[in-house]
Automatic annotation (TrEMBL):
SMART domains: Transket_pyr (SM00861). It comes from Aliiglaciecola lipolytica E3. The lineage of its organism: Bacteria, Pseudomonadati, Pseudomonadota, Gammaproteobacteria, Alteromonadales. This is 2-oxoglutarate dehydrogenase E1 component. Its EC number is 1.2.4.2. The keyword Oxidoreductase applies. Gene3D superfamilies: 3.40.50.12470, 3.40.50.970, Multifunctional 2-oxoglutarate metabolism enzyme, C-terminal domain, TPP helical domain. GO terms for molecular function: oxoglutarate dehydrogenase (succinyl-transferring) activity; thiamine pyrophosphate binding. The keyword Isomerase does not apply. The gene is sucA.
Length: 940
């Protein structure tokens, strides 16, 4: 009889359904202090096998199975333990009280007062009701042990506990952290949140600072609205708390030891942040609204894409601030910011992230909708991309452009649920309660600094106007905007609160408002913490004012080059190489002895060795970069005996530059954006991203279009990022043939970058060294090879390397007399070797084959001096390519080809016909097409 009653009790409890996770939570509380749990549970836990120092042979799986048995058997488990066979009513309720505490920790956020408009209606959560736990108001005066609830008391009356739980978890802050598996992190968060019931006392000085921030945020928007009515500004109104939030975050970061803060955000509130946080001169912004611009800045960009840098005074010293430039592709700036932070950390030799803080600011629809967010989260704890955690802030105005229905914008309860993939704590906070905002801001930073992980703040607010100020929001959100029109601005709400509590009077508030307005009229900086920039920013001076012909000494003594080569083929005896890798290193020894000519992998590694020996650092990332997708690089060795890694390039010389090679996560967009951010923050490092196959760069097209190709024209941002994109038609089908050369050539203008197609090991050696040594920073796009990595003709001697010259154009190499030439074939890349071999087979001596190794900037001078003048008598010129006619270089560079041939000559095309697909999928058809285009080029 008793057992059936107990079974009914068990089935109705919070533990029904085999809630082993809950029992483990109780067990963790027991381990912390046995008095945290009831006598019953204490007796059960004490009966479990000991792991700490007693019965060490008892595996964790055994204990886990006992937990499962307890959850499954319920009261029957007690009969086989040391627990008493009967339970008292008070003990039953004690267990229920602990369940109630756990329920609030898990689900209290669902009843929190988060929406300033009170339109956000959460479903009823029965777990948060007393009745669900068989508790009633009759139990209010009973004292219960509160277990690990970090209120500073061992026992509380149920009434006080219930009030405290609601104040802590259901006020203006909704905390989500119980998805974190690390107990230490959960306990830390519970201590910080519960000890002050999520509402600590703050000083009058802090309250005035908050108010001043709200006055500035509101005043700025009203000023712009009155001076420039109808102009797009992507107003912050409704999310005004962001300004005191950021200022509080930066100040707390400075007090915690940070020296730099890098911020990434989209449009909403950017102008406000520029003026009221970073200290941009308002008069400069107003000039931009009036249409004035500096013609020396190039093409420029719209106001709400602009970045800015300044120094900000904090209690811990000046902190350098950088707001990243950002195009309209919303979330793409996030990995750019993280990459910039990693560069700054490396420059400061800071490995734990304490010196530089990344802050990314998101829109609610964008963070849930754009895949680069997931990619960036996924990188956050990886070796090559971690920065010690990022503080992520969502300006949650509950509308995505014109879409407000949750079922249209995401498939999760919250827009921030994506953060759970990395177990980041999430703090939802009502933006109309700026003191709660300040509390979670400090809490978030302290968590990030303590555990070196990402943390999310969901600033739940609203958008007072449409997506931009020209939109009419009532058309799509009538109910929301009827409420917004009647809703007071955050400044008024907080000012009324402070006057009611006697912190400040109405006259002082009016004075703050009028003083801010006067400061805007004056046009000077309105941020008291603003300071002129000093030593925080990297010096770009050595890289300014140089053109493509900037002089540099690329020569190297042969003995020095061989010495460098010996350093990169040496490895400890403890490193046992895989047989193929051992043979490759044996071949490299033979190359150093000049018994074999240099292949691609050896020449490339020699380039890296020379660069780091000069003190320059190199960062190379990609999905197979350590080994090389095509098994050619093997710069990172893996011992077959213990899996240990060894990188010879890190042992070139005593004072060498840093050499880092990381196999990246399976991402293109976020990784390329990260490397762009790194390269724009660290010109002294050669930064390289290698695609697994060249067409994989398609996944990063937005980075290429909106940052890499146009960043200098729009924002004056120099960048030396190098992309290695394997390219060549080997019969591997549409997706593994083309790096889409035509897309890069289409974007060529204003000398924005270099597009190169090196065809020999010596060329890749000198191209890489030129990118690092030449005193200019422009992106380098490389159509790198696949089959040429081991092609018997793609070899070079040491003498070809030591001259230090990358040849933009390579003339005919066979013994062909120029006066006998009747046709000149121009080409780039792998097809050259197909043409060369076939011409030799045909024993033709009247056709010259010219390689154009740099397609942009096109080498007109070298062509005129070395090629056109030499073959000026030839009237038959051909451009030969492997790619279809509508792809490759033919259409985008044809005007350059025409400009390079003699007057009166004709130019024809030899290659595949136009195609919607980059290549055919059938190997037989590929071979047929390849033979046809080669024969076409060689047939007079």
């Amino acid at each position: 009889m008793q057992q059936s009653v107990m079974k009914a009790w068990w089935d109705s409890s919070h533990m029904a359904g085999g809630n082993a996770a809950y029992i483990e939570e109780l067990y963790e509380a027991f381990l912390e202090d046995p008095n945290n749990v009831s006598d019953q549970w204490r007796s059960i836990f004490e009966g479990l096998p000991k792991v700490d120092g007693v019965e060490l042979d008892t595996s964790h799986s055994t204990i886990r199975e006992q937990f499962k048995a307890l959850a499954a058997l319920g009261p029957a488990a007690r009969a086989t333990s040391n627990a008493p066979s009967k339970t008292s009513t008070s003990d039953d309720k004690q267990v229920k009280v602990l369940q109630l505490i756990n329920a609030y920790r898990f689900r209290g956020h669902q009843h929190a007062n988060l929406d300033p408009l009170d339109l956000w209606k959460q479903p009823r959560v029965r777990d948060l009701e007393l009745s669900h736990h068989n508790l009633t108001e009759k139990d209010f005066d009973t004292h219960f042990n509160v277990g690990s609830y970090a209120i500073g008391q061992e026992t509380m009356t149920l009434k006080d506990l219930f009030t405290s739980l609601n104040r802590t978890y259901c006020g203006s802050i909704g905390s989500e952290y119980m998805h974190i598996t690390d107990t230490e992190q959960k306990r830390w968060l519970q201590q910080r949140i519960e000890s002050v019931q999520a509402k600590p006392e703050i000083s009058r000085e802090e309250k005035i600072h908050i108010l001043k921030g709200l006055v500035a945020a509101d005043g700025m928007e009203k000023y712009l609205g009155s001076k420039f009515p109808g102009a797009k500004r992507f107003s912050l109104e409704g999310g005004d708390s962001l300004v005191p939030m950021l200022k509080g975050l930066i100040n707390h970061a400075g007090e915690s030891g940070a020296k730099e803060v890098v911020i990434g955000m989209a449009h909403r509130g950017r102008l406000n942040v520029l003026v009221n946080v970073l200290g941009k001169n308002p008069s400069v912004l107003f000039d931009e609204f009036s249409g004035k611009h500096d013609e020396s800045l190039g093409a420029g960009d719209v106001k709400y894409h602009a970045g800015f840098s300044s120094d900000f005074a904090t209690g811990g010293g000046n902190v350098h601030l950088a707001l990243a430039f950002n195009p309209s592709h919303l979330e793409i700036v996030n990995p750019v910011v993280i990459g910039s932070v990693r560069a700054r950390l490396d420059r400061r030799n800071c490995s734990d992230g304490s010196a530089v803080l990344p802050i990314t600011i998101h829109g609610d629809s964008a963070i849930a909708g754009q895949g680069v967010v997931q990619e960036t989260f996924n990188m956050s704890q990886t070796r090559g991309f971690q920065v010690g955690g990022t503080v992520r802030i969502v300006i949650n105005n509950q509308v995505g452009f014109t879409t407000s229905k949750t079922e249209d914008t995401r498939s999760t309860q919250y827009c921030t649920d994506i953060a759970k993939m990395v177990q980041a704590p999430i703090f939802h906070v009502n933006a109309d309660d700026p003191e709660a905002v300040l509390f979670v801001t400090k809490l978030a930073l302290d968590y990030r600094n303590t555990f070196k992980r990402d943390v999310m703040i969901d600033l739940v607010c609203y958008r007072r106007h449409g997506h931009n100020e020209a939109d009419e929001p009532n058309a799509t959100q009538p109910l929301m905007y009827q409420k917004i029109k009647k809703h007071p601005v955050p400044r008024l709400i907080y000012a009324d609160q402070l006057t009611a509590e006697g912190t400040i009077d109405a006259h002082e508030i009016e004075k703050l408002v009028s003083e801010y307005r006067a400061a805007l009229d004056h046009g000077a900086c309105v941020v008291p913490e603003w300071r002129p920039m000093t030593e925080h920013s990297v010096d770009w001076t050595p890289y300014l004012g140089h053109d493509w012909d900037a002089e540099y000494d690329g020569t190297i003594e042969k003995d020095k080059l061989i010495e460098l080569g010996r350093s990169i083929v040496n490895y400890p005896e403890s490193v046992k190489l895989q047989s193929r890798v051992k043979k490759l290193y044996g071949d490299r020894e033979a190359m150093l002895a000049e018994e074999k000519l240099l292949d691609w992998g050896m020449a490339e590694n020699l380039a890296y060795a020379d660069i780091v020996s000069r003190g320059t650092s190199i960062r190379l990332t990609g999905q197979d970069s350590g080994r090389g997708t095509f098994f050619h690089r093997h710069a990172v060795l893996h011992s077959q005996s213990d899996g240990a890694e060894y990188m010879p390039l890190q042992h070139v010389s005593e004072n060498q530059g840093r050499m880092e090679i990381y196999d990246s996560v399976l991402s293109e967009a976020a990784v390329v954006a990260f490397e762009f951010g790194y390269a724009t923050a660290e010109p002294g490092t050669l930064t390289i991203w290698e695609a697994q196959f060249g067409d994989f760069a398609n996944g990063a097209q937005v980075v290429i279009d909106q940052f890499l190709s146009s960043g200098e024209a729009k924002w004056g941002r120099l960048c030396g990022l190098t992309l290695l994109l394997p390219h060549g038609y080997e019969g591997q089908g549409p997706e593994h043939s083309s790096a889409r050369l035509e897309r890069f050539l289409q974007l060529c203008a204003d000398h924005n970058w270099q597009v190169c197609v090196p065809s020999t090991p010596a060329q890749v050696y000198n191209m890489i060294r030129r990118q690092a040594i030449r005193p200019m920073r422009k992106p380098l796009i490389v159509m790198s090879p696949k089959s040429l990595l081991r092609h018997p003709l793609a070899i070079s001697s040491f003498d070809e390397l030591t001259d230090g010259i990358f040849h933009n154009v390579i003339d005919e190499i066979d013994d062909i007399k120029s006066e006998d030439v009747k046709r000149v074939i121009m080409c780039s890349g792998k097809v050259y070797y197909d043409l060369l071999e076939q011409r030799r087979k045909n024993e033709q001596s009247d056709i010259a084959i010219i390689r154009i190794e740099q397609l942009y900037p096109f080498p007109h001078e070298e062509m005129a001096a070395n090629i056109t003048n030499k073959y000026k008598h030839v009237k038959d010129w051909v451009w030969c390519q492997e790619e279809p006619q509508n792809q490759g270089a033919w259409y985008c560079s044809q005007h350059h080809f025409w400009g390079s041939i003699p007057d009166g000559a004709k130019l024809t095309y030899a290659g595949r016909t136009a195609s919607a697909s980059p290549a055919v999928g059938y190997n037989a058809v590929h071979n047929q097409q390849q033979k046809a285009l080669v024969d076409d080029a060689l047939t007079l």
